[in-house]
């Protein structure tokens, strides 16, 4: 009942906001309040060179909302900022406190940034399977990083964060259950998209899920203003938790997961699909925010990310490649003249040590050596 009441208030409050949006706010040039003022208002760019002949013949328009324009290069900057501000307003987070969270990396990086700017201590719990560069970025931002065993998966790092919070009295940000997460997307990400497409068609919004906050808040807001928009959710083919239709076992009090979902398997799309369905996503599914679920393979995600880089100059991570690969499938099946928007969650620089860059050599290849040898000077001696 409490959730239904909150949802009703949320719906009434945001419906008017959604319908009143006309134009995007222009970016400022100077931010006197610091780096956190630059969060949000990310650009939407047209994708020109990726569409199939079928989609081109139908006059499909494809766009990417580039969340790597946030200050720490991912959509999770919004989440961290929202959760910390909400805790400050409620008085549950006070000066000098320590924030602890479990994350695959992007939330931890964002949380470390927010804590650094606001003066909080930050501890991040992360499974050892996630990329090395994420750990280093968080430590560079002043956070302490506690690594948990890979076989314990996402639930292991979540349980470690909870254990640290209960033992030491740390503030547990609970990104997977915290309602400040989807509410901030409803206040920012959704309105930004509606503003950008206020004077033109918007038919499909495509994105993946990690906490479910982006689809819950953005999807709900977009549908309030434009009910005809189809929200397409993607997830890994070998970890298709939502597609399975199997319920997630969770603690009735905290709504946190109590065990790994039976449909989960390891996958390379970091940031997507932990080994459980978060309560935030469960609520969005129950509220019928999502119209369709399209699984995508890790290989497709990696190939599409690299293709975005080499043909569009859009440098996004594996999850961004997964969202775009899904969007391309939507484009092929969409009605003529449709407009499709894919949300790209982060930057490819966070994946240097992952399979995304496995085919990218550090040394010169044969073509590059041939170019070098085409003129007589300044040639590197072969190793």
Describe this structure in words.
- By secondary structure, the chain is α/β, with parallel strands linked by helices.
- It has helices at 2-20, 53-57, 76-90, 106-118, 132-140, 153-168, 180-187, 189-196, 213-225, 241-244, 279-286, 298-312, 318-333, 366-373; strands at 44-46, 61-66, 98-102, 121-127, 144-148, 171-172, 204-208, 230-236, 292-296, 339-344.
- The chain is globular and about 65 Å long.
- Strand 7 (204-208), helix 9 and strand 8 form a beta-alpha-beta unit.
- Residues 19-25 have low confidence and may be disordered.
- Strands 1-2-10-7-8-9 form a six-stranded mixed sheet.
Order of helices and strands: HEHEHEHEHEHEHHEHEHHEHHEH
The share of residues in helices is: 40-55%
Number of distinct helices: 14
Percent of sequence in beta strands: 5-15%
Tell me, briefly, the overall form: globular
Spans with pLDDT under 50 lasting ≥5 residues? 19-25
Overall pLDDT confidence: 93
List the helices and strands and how they pair.
Layout: H1 2-20, E1 44-46, H2 53-57, E2 61-66, H3 76-90, E3 98-102, H4 106-118, E4 121-127, H5 132-140, E5 144-148, H6 153-168, E6 171-172, H7 180-187, H8 189-196, E7 204-208, H9 213-225, E8 230-236, H10 241-244, H11 279-286, E9 292-296, H12 298-312, H13 318-333, E10 339-344, H14 366-373
Parallel strand pairs: 2-10, 3-4, 3-6, 4-5, 7-8, 7-10, 8-9
Antiparallel strand pairs: 1-2
Helix pairs in contact: 1-9, 3-4, 3-7, 4-5, 7-9, 8-9, 9-11, 12-13
